């Protein structure tokens, strides 16, 4: 998509996630990278790019942080739609909300390993009276071959 609010990770440019290519732990890759599953993006394309946790990562978690969004209003709630892959053994993906006035991140959605190694889709709706950031936090408990957490095609609505 050509929308500035869509991050499909085909390039390193993404207005809403300005630092995604700098975050330690997340790697931009495709299914042909030789880094284990997933072997294709959410459309089944082996050569299309997505983000996944690096299997070489020393720590077991990595955060992906958005730009600061303005407060939402009743007409324009912030909807974030994304595709995700969580390996069935020990992967976890959380989405957190950090409001301007708070130091801590509030967890607003999470999923872990009961899903059977396939791409899934989720939409979260955020209603905030103050400026906020959204944080995607991926975690793997083990470094076994095939343990993976991945994100693809994050789309942000006009209200974000």
Radius of gyration: 15 Å
Distance between the termini: 17 Å
Q: Helical segment tally?
A: 0
Number of strands: 10
Shape: globular
- Provide the number of structural domains: 1
Q: What is the CATH class? A: Mainly Beta
Task: Describe this entry's structure for a reader.
It comes from Peucedramus taeniatus (Olive warbler). The protein has 160 residues and is mostly beta strands. The chain has one domain: Jelly Rolls. It is built from no helices and ten strands. The strands form two sheets. Strands 1, 2, 3, 5, 8 and 10 form a six-stranded antiparallel β-sheet that branches.
List the helices and strands and how they pair.
Layout: E1 6-7, E2 26-30, E3 49-53, E4 61-65, E5 78-86, E6 91-99, E7 106-112, E8 120-126, E9 132-140, E10 149-156
Antiparallel strand pairs: 1-10, 2-3, 3-10, 4-9, 5-8, 5-10, 6-7, 6-9
């Amino acid at each position: 998509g050509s929308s500035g609010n869509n991050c499909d990770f085909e390039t390193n440019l993404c207005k809403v996630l300005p630092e995604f290519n700098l975050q330690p732990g997340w790697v931009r890759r495709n299914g042909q990278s030789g880094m284990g599953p997933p072997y294709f993006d959410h459309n089944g394309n082996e050569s299309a790019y997505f983000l996944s946790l690096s299997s070489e990562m020393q720590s077991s978690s990595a955060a992906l942080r958005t730009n600061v969004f303005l407060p939402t209003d009743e007409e324009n709630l912030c909807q974030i739609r994304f595709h995700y892959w969580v390996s069935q053994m020990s992967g976890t993906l959380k989405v957190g909300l950090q409001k301007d006035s708070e130091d801590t991140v509030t967890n607003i959605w999470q999923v872990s390993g009961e899903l059977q190694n396939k791409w899934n889709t989720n939409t979260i709706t955020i209603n905030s009276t103050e400026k906020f950031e959204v944080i995607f936090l991926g975690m793997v408990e083990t470094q076994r071959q095939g343990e993976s957490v991945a994100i693809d095609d994050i789309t942000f609505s006009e209200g974000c």
